[in-house]
Structure prediction request, 353 residues.
Amino acid sequence: MSTPVSEAVTLTLRRPDDWHLHLRDAEALRAVLPFTAARFARAIIMPNLDPPVTTTVAALSYRGRIRAALPRGARFEPLMTLYLTDETSAEEIRLARDSGAVAGCKLYPAGATTHSAAGVRDVANLQAALEAMMEVDLPLLVHGEVVDARVDIFEREARFIEQVLAPLVERYARLRVVLEHVSTRHGVEFVRSARTGVAATVTPQHLLFNRNALFAGGLRPHLYCLPVLKSESDRRSILEALAAGDPRFFLGTDSAPHARHAKESACGCAGVFSAHAALELYAEAFERDGILPRLAAFAGEFGADFYRLPRNEERITLVKQSWTLPETYPFGDTELVPLGAGKPLSWRLQSAP
Ligand code: NCD
Ligand code: ZN
Ligand code: ZN
Prediction:
């Protein structure tokens, strides 16, 4: 006998947005986009393609490919970003703003993460671009880790904040800045005490796991991302900011698909794929911590407010219903191992793809 629908526990939220997403391109794009489009109204699309999206022309063309890859009938708006380099000009920033298609510019320290080789070598070289961004009010999105191999990998976010981000936030006093995928107590405290216009995105993996999970019973390459998972104290500090309902912290999955063979390798790629169940994974994390009432604003309000975009009026419903996440998903001619593969999840999207 089936349970009457009226007895099902449901959670209805404003349709959320994903403020940090990697969609890749071509076949990979077609494989992952439907998951995001089924849940989110908009997403900030990361520009770390190969070659990177460094110009407005390239961003517009990439937006066209994303729109063309959308499932029929899907309503989803890709918000594009420019990949900053030592050469990005003030003129390019103005073109980006005038296009109406670009919502921010991304700072990857050269060598910090996947496809960051063409990134910024010295933030001093960004002066013209950052001044123009401040002038046209285009937010700066930051992968906040130093790249110096001598710095302990768990300290790279803190060092970046001290050496680069804090001075930058002071110097460009009106620039809006997002510390992407915040992973440490240091990062959380920096954002909580920073001037107005400084915010952070939070991923599901940094909420659900600490670094022990990377080594639980053996090496777990599918939990390897950058910034790498941190200590339990760091994880707690992110949850505390969310429990406080701090509007500076909002949803950004950093869903970053890599083919299974590229992760299960002697030198595995950094990136966790979470788009398949992104909202459900956040619901799990929030519920586990007793802060489920904080999910709606984190997922559907704070980010839109920060980006000065209207909050979505549409609603989305999650049902409390245990299901088992697939072990893999198709990814072009190969496959992807998603976050939580083969594990039970207690929330399910009504009518997921
Ligand atoms: C991202 C990717 O694979 O593009 N990887 C990751 O570990 N987060 C890049 C990034 O966001 O740093
Ligand atoms: Zn990053
Ligand atoms: Zn990312």
